[in-house]
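Q: Make up one entry.
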Amino acid sequence: MILKSKELDFLRIKNLKIGIPLPKQKLSPRGITSERKSAILSKLGPLMPDNRRGFWETLPVNDSSADLTEIYED
């Protein structure tokens, strides 16, 4: 039994005509607070393999960064 594929159109007509706007580009990495980074590294660092620890050690720090587990940020 061979099924034919059917093309579906999920975009609204308005979006097809004017296009979909591109999202705003981030100028710098968002990062996490230095407090959170040091807590993660001190608690979980000894348990992490070396290839994972490198990610956390080089993760950018931004103390004005919102905690996305509590707040949604655009």
